[in-house]
Amino acid sequence: MDMSMSMSMSREAILQVKGMRKEFPGVLALENVDFSVQQGEVRALVGENGAGKSTLIKILTGVYQPDGGELLFKGRKTTIAGPLAGQQMGISVVHQELNLIEDLSICENIFLGRPLLKKAFPHLIDWQLMNRESSALLERLKVALDVGEKVKNLSVAQKQIVEIAKALSYNCEIMIMDEPSATLTENELQVLFDVIFELKRQGVTIVYISHRLEEIFKIADTVTVLRDGRHIVTGKVADTDRSELIRSMVGRSMDNEYPKRSGVIGDTLLEVSHFTSSRLKDVSLQLKSGEILGVAGLVGAGRTELARAIFGADRKDGGTLLLRGKEEKIHAVSDAVRKGLGLVPEERKNDGLVLGMTLRENISLTKIEKVENSVLLSPAKELKLSNEYIQKLRIITPGPEQLVKNLSGGNQQKVVLAKWLVADSDILIFDEPTRGIDVGAKYEIYLLLNELVQAGKSIIMISSELPELLGMSDRIIVMHEGKITGELSREEADQEKIMNLAAG
Amino acid sequence: MKSRNNEQQMSFRTRAANFFTAVNKKYFIIYAVITLTVVLSFLSDSFLSVHNIINILRQSSMIAIIAVGVFFTIVSAGIDISVGSTVALAGIIMAKVLVDYSAPVFVGVLAGLAVGVAIGFINGYLVTKRRIPAFVATLGMMGAVRGLTYVITNAYPVSGLPKGIYFIGRGYVGPIPVPVIIMVVVYAGAYVIAEHTRIGRFIFAIGGNEEASHLSGIKVDRYKLFAYMTSGGLAALSGIILVSRLASGQPNAGIGYEFEAITAAVVGGTSLYGGKGTIPGVFLGAIFIAILLNGMVLLNISSYYQQMLKGIVLILAVMIDVARNADH
Questions:
Q1: Do B216 and A350 touch (CB under 8 A)?
Q2: Do A193 and A242 have their domain in common?
Q3: Rounded to whole angstroms, how far apart are CA atoms A293 and A240?
Q4: CATH code reported for the domain at B29-319
Q5: Nearest-Cα residue of chain A relative to residue B201
Q6: Within 10 Å of residue B210's Cβ, how many Cβ atoms?
Q7: Which residues of A touch B219 (CB under 8 A)?
Q8: Measured between CA atoms, how close is B128 to chain A, in angstroms?
Q9: In this structure, are A232 and A291 located in the same domain?
Q10: Distance from C-alpha of B55 to C-alpha of B66, rounded to nearest angstrom
Q11: Do A368 and B198 touch (CB under 8 A)?
Q12: pLDDT of amino acid B14
């Protein structure tokens, strides 16, 4: 294949970056990235989480300033001082999370913060003019909506169109769409695509970010793949296919990123049967001792809900849970903890730690008996326990009296883990165990996961990072809309199979 | 040799610095108490007399006891503003039991305490099981309980109490008034619970991060309930002392006590955001307010100004709390 021969060299690009570099403390987010788009083109931008897509977009829209490299707009070298400057130049972004005010009308949202005023009375808002202007914008998109309608009465796709109209009202020439499809249903998707085609016909350039690869083949002319902060390839969509794209996105040797382990997988420890709730549809799974069971799926597929249901944190409507072959009723988190379950939540700052307390105080919250002498807390026992786990988990901290909020992300995650080790949990549920943790600390977390299963504990690992799932799991189940759509052994699992199952 | 000396000095200095940082963080209020004491001792000859100091302690004791209960609710990220009404109802019920049924003193006291704990239970139930914001739940109870007090008494005081009850409010052990002794016992107990038991640890954890506490397996509702029941019980204890001092049950007793107790807790460094505070701090807060009011009496300042100053002190204390939280 010849994807690497960029077609963007042939014509003058409307927007071009060269040698772009952006560094954050401990992370090189972008390294020597070249990227250029032509006027009227629909460019897909793909890559895994952490590949550098968001950083690139934020530089293109003036949210971040680059640490190196140059930016050319219509062939002229320029800098984008801030988001407003970007908008005024003609670069707008439509975010996945919509920034609309639900109780205001479409018209009011489009002109939010910059109302059109009457010429004769410049302190009064010219509602007629604003209505006319916003109607014209919607007509341009070939969408029939009443501009007086309140945003809260619109569907998600319609809200997205309001965002697009708002971006257009800034005389937008380049529209960046950051995962616009993530929250849309199949039918709504077509509405979005129609708008994109209409914009393209009118000469607006579109940069389209999505994790759903099949969309890219429907709407994009060209595609750029980023990986680990680097530009991997740019080429015509017609010249490539799905599996080749995935290879470019992943394309790394996995052997050294995920530590090997040697362990024996034992008997079934946990058996979940027919779990049903508002977000789960008849979910069953088994977990063996010494096993890491990966759980894959898109955001909103019900993975976190499954974890919380097993852990007794959310109400469920039906289903049974067997531990070591014996049925257990888990009505509350405290039951689950007593039975040896532990949850390392995705949002560790909100759900996993009391940030204003010390490491010493956090570590024993799950099993306070361990640091008590009859009814009183024993400072000696607390100190001993904290020091023990600081050593065991290699937590980097000045000492047990350090406030947890002052620890790094990786070390905070270790404190959460320590809580469950203190509680002698046999079954640990990790929800996105390495999110927000830098590369070196990730490896450490993987080592700890291996040590845990080698010691006979069992792990359910929810992750959106496919390489992590493939590298660490003995078995992977895939969820879609609250259901388990498939199960793959370590040997048969690959990214494409998981993605296919995750898409339903 | 010389350098080692230096090192030792350094380490002493660092340790001293650390100590003061710790004091600054936790007991900032101590400086306010010292400053106020020094200023007042210059302004008034009688301020630093033994008699006056004991007087200050006795005056502060009722608010200080209530403040301990309020402290636990605030630490759990809630609040209890029904305590003033609880003071009145508990006192009235005790007085009624003693007067109408000629019950023994300890039965009357237990009845009064039971009323307080029951009010605390209702508060706790509303906050945990019914998910009503603590401010609203206890505000409603503040009105309802006060109303009930008027209904029971027709707004007339209950008098004719047996002499046996007087000891609680008016008695002395040696030179020390009994209410001061009760206060010391309450603070000692509260200190142990807050700092050295799982109850305290969990209430702080819940106030710091309720969801993380819940997901650690802590029975959040149970410990919140404890906080509100303690608050009700201690308010009742204060009500009992008050009845004993006044020798009658007053239906409008304790009006505004919630204000002073919350002020004492917050001035003493208890964060209204929850999860932060100390029992010694609350004690100093209560003492600070008592000294302030005592000083103004000694200096012949009108009680209207006292009222104003109390309000200003509360706002200043919260301003400090907000500023400290903004730092993080």
A1: no
A2: yes
A3: 33
A4: 1.10.3470
A5: A361
A6: 18
A7: 332, 334
A8: 15
A9: no
A10: 18
A11: yes
A12: 67
In a domain, A397, yes or no: yes
Q: Please list the helix, strand and coil fractions of chain B in percent, rounded to the nearest 5, in that order.
A: 75, 0, 20
Report the pLDDT value the prediction gives residue A335, as an integer from 0 to 100.
95
pLDDT, tens only, A418-454: 999 999 999 999 999 987 666 567 788 899 999 999 9
Q: Is B222 on the interface with A (CB under 8 A)?
A: no
> What residue spans define the domains of chain B?
29-319
Q: What confidence tens digit (pLDDT) does each residue in A360-404 have?
A: 999 999 999 999 998 999 999 999 999 999 999 989 889 999 999
3-state secondary structure A302-314: CHHHHHHHHCCCC
Q: Give the confidence band of A299 by pLDDT, cuts at 50, 70, 90.
A: confident
**Structure-block tokens of residue A227:** 């990986």
Across the interface, do B209 and A372 touch by the CB < 8 Å criterion?
no
Q: Would A346 be classed as within a structural domain?
A: no
**A368 within domain boundaries:** yes
Contacts A376 to B, Cβ<8 Å = 192, 196-197
Residue A286 pLDDT exceeds 80: yes
Q: Which residues of B62-93 are buried (b: 16+ CB within 10 A; e: fewer)?
A: bbbbbbbbbbbbbbbbbbbbbbbbbbbbbbbb
Distance from CA of B3 to the nearest CA of A (A): 26
**Domain final residue, candidates A116, A136, A170:** A170
Interface of A with B in 335-374 (CB under 8 A): 336-338, 343, 345, 350-357, 361, 365-366, 368, 372
Contacts of B210 in chain A (CB under 8 A): none
Q: CB under 8 Å to A141, separation ≥6 — which residues?
A: A161, A164, A165, A168, A195, A198, A199
B279-298 vs B29-43: helix crossing angle, rounded to 10? 20
Range of the domain at A370: 354-424
What pLDDT score was predicted for residue A144?
Answer: 86
Number of domains in chain A: 4
CATH (domain of A458)? 3.40.50.300
Answer yes or no: do A33 and A159 share one domain: no
**Hey, are the CB atoms on B215 and A333 less than 8 Å from each other?**
yes
User: CA-to-CA distance for A336 and A423, rounded, in angstroms?
Assistant: 11
Q: Which residue, of A113, A146, A170, is where some domain finishes? A: A170
Does the pLDDT of residue A224 top 90, yes or no?
A: yes
Same domain for A277 and A136: no
Q: Output the DSSP codes for B265-318.
A: HHHTT--TTSS---HHHHHHHHHHHHHHHHHHHHTT--HHHHHHHHHHHHHHHH
Contact flag A356-B208 (C-beta cutoff 8 Å): yes
Contact B201 A354 (CB under 8 A): no
Tokens (6 digits) for A375: 């009814």
Q: How many helices (H) and strands (E) does chain B have?
A: 14, 2
| Predicted confidence (pLDDT) per residue in A62-80, tens digit | 889 999 999 999 888 988 8
Query: Residues with Cβ < 8 Å from A214, sequence gap 6 or more?
Result: A242, A503
Residue A446 to residues A292, A399, A439, A471, Cα–Cα distance (Å): 11, 24, 11, 10
**How many beta-carbon pairs below 8 A join chains A and B?**
72
Measure CB to CB from residue A356 to each of B192, B213, B276 and give the nearest one: B276
Query: Is the domain of A19 the same as that of A159?
Result: no
End-to-end CA distance of chain B: 42
CB-CB: which of A351, A357, A376 is closest to B205? A357
Same domain, A66 and A193: yes
Are A337 and B216 in contact (CB < 8 Å)? yes
Query: A10 lies in a domain?
Result: yes
| Nearest one of B123, B57, B64 to B257, comparing CA atoms | B64
Among A311, A361, A368, most B C-beta atoms within 10 A, so best to mutate, is A368
